[in-house]
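Methods — Computational structure assignment.
A single polypeptide chain was analysed. Its primary sequence is given first, followed by the predicted tertiary structure written as structure tokens.
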Amino acid sequence: MTDEPVVDELITLRRANPTSPEVLEQAVAMDRATLLEMLAADAEAADAAGAADTGGSAADSAASRYRYVGAMAVAAAALTVIALIGAGRSRVARESVDPADSDASVVSVPAEDNEAARPQVSVAVPDRTDDAVADDGRHGRESTGPESSGVQSEGQDRTGDAGQPATDPPMSTASSPEVDPTPVEFQPSPVPETALLDPATDLLAVHFDHSHLDDGHAAAAARELATWYGLTPHVVSGTAPADITFPVHSFETVMTRIWGDAWLDARSDRSRAVSETAARWLATIDGGGRVWVAEGGVSDFTAEVVRRIIEERPAVDTVSAIRVVQHIDRNEMATGPDNLQLVLANTSYIRIDDGNGQNDTAGLNQPSTTLVDLATTGRHADGWAVAFEHLPAERLDFSDTVAVLHILGVTTDEVLNPTDFANRFMG
């Protein structure tokens, strides 16, 4: 084994950056774990190749590996020397940086655990081009969500102090790995002051009849909103009555992937769904709150719950306590006439514009590569994946979500289309 590959890498680095010692310094300060993994992988590959060519023994292979790793350690030391040579040239440029300048983004390398603190190495990070910002829907926002690691993704803004170059050489990159063990916890955003719902006392109820395949998309979008605002909604699926004339699509898998066990199946166990829903609504009302129903389909189930509450607690003022938000006349026409009349007479019924049209509601039934990218890599990727199996991502449609947005006070000034939704709630 020789150190020729290492020499080639050094030559390539210097040719690519003949006047940029900062880049070499950044290489010296790179994540030690990454470099060690590279060393191990390259050494194993070299051993395998050497054994195959020479028919050598396992002992010969191990000896080759030690020689190779030693050569790489020498190369790492060479990188350190080169970085120090360039540090003098980079000092003037760094001292001229105004720490208050928003374009001066740097990365600070923390001290090794269980060692005396070392001088920090501040490495300049080149600004991204306008094209890169346009291609990255997450630029400038924190990674969020209970399932997220909390570690900033590549391409996100990184900020720090524009400090002086280290006066002592940084530790060799061939030493033990350095790990930041502290992930950033997701913090829900406060519900907007413009919201109709009071998160301290009110209950958000989200209903889906699954008469259309787009209900899977709407369920996933509602989950994103609930996570973003830290809400625990009451979710019911299969709200169409058993004798409905239109088909009801399978929804068990998609709802379980999106909501876990925090939803009720009104299709397979209607009695339990009505009973538990009425109990939770009454608990909210007894606590001085209101129930806000985002009606994603027909209102037959809502009518059954309201009827149960009236029977059990006739003194409850359901008109004041229960607000139903519907966005489409098709759902009204498909609701049983008696049930629709009961809801209209015994709740505060709010009819907003059709979420499928061009009007004062967001147009959430159009393609968006930004949303699909964030959906398939974000907090609720498993749920979105199943929703996209039911209805392909190319036919993106979560128009029922306009009812939830209305309740939360999110207007078209903030969310006008799926890309706006993704950038606002899924980053």
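Note: The longest strand covers residues 203-208.
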